[in-house]
Design goal:
By secondary structure, the protein is of the alpha+beta class. It has one domain (4-309). It contains 13 helices and seven strands. The strands form two sheets. Strands 3, 4, 5, 6 and 7 form a five-stranded antiparallel beta sheet that branches. A two-stranded parallel ribbon has the order 1-2. α4 crosses α7 (142-155), α6 packs across α7 and α12 (268-292) packs across α13. The chain is globular. 41% of the residues are buried.
Amino acid sequence: MTSIREIKEKGYIPQKMTTKLFIAGAFSLSKTLLLNMGDLKKLRKSLPNSERYIRPKREYEIPKFSKDMKINNSNEKYLRPTLYCDHREPKVVALAHKLGAYKKSDREFAEGAFELVKEQMTLEICPLNSVSETLDRGTGTCFHLITAFIALCRAAGIKARYKVFAMNVIKAWYDSVVVADPLVKKWYDSMGYFMLEGEGEAFIDGKWVVAHVGPKAERQAAAGIPITKFGEDSIGRWFFAIPGTIMIMESIPYGFSGTTKLLKIIAPGSMERVNISILKQIEKGRDIINKAGGADSYDRMVRMEEGAKKPDIKIESKSQIVFED
């Protein structure tokens, strides 16, 4: 049983900003549902003749756990098990050792974990669960995937944590995912942003390095943006963080899974339509990458075009202008 001390120390109680965003999101969703009760009945289920979501096959193998595998038993902050993220679970330990835990350098291991989660796991909107279930399934929301990355790092003795923020999205992501379902679109439009998004961070060579594991290369290609690498932030490329909402967390707090659980209950059809849209986006991006001659060729081309479009900006300090996080 989790003690009160552990709940406080690990951050299971939502931060003030998180609570504020939860309340705003719940109010917005409730308002959206009340104003669209007629549409909700239609959207709750997929139409009989419509296509159905088929979960993609897991792209990697998880080896069998062996008792001689080294386990990180540290109780230090960012190295200990947290909610949904128990790195001591056998499947996590086994996969971490397959990736080279305690054999590779911290950077090499973290980059390998990043590549596995980002490119071999697939975004799927579903309720939160244990990290072992996520690895076994091979799919999950951005927070499932971030948790998988963090758990693998902690299993290898590398400190890892969450960076969470409220955000709005680039137009390509809005057009392909948000617009995929009328209910989700109305909810997003009523707020102007999604409640919470996030990234992982690993402590490498004395500094925190960001790991944007949410989108596969194909999804980024479908959006026409570079394929982010280990150490490259999603903010400014894939998302735009709402000022003042960035939070550092050791653990996902209580209540975090409420939105997806509620969506699954009241509008499972909406969840399915978004997941179908994600797979279509991956297919589109795969074609774009193939036509470009591969992921590396696509990435170089897009980065060159992106650099050519950016003007040189000279910044001069002025006392009357203040920028805040």
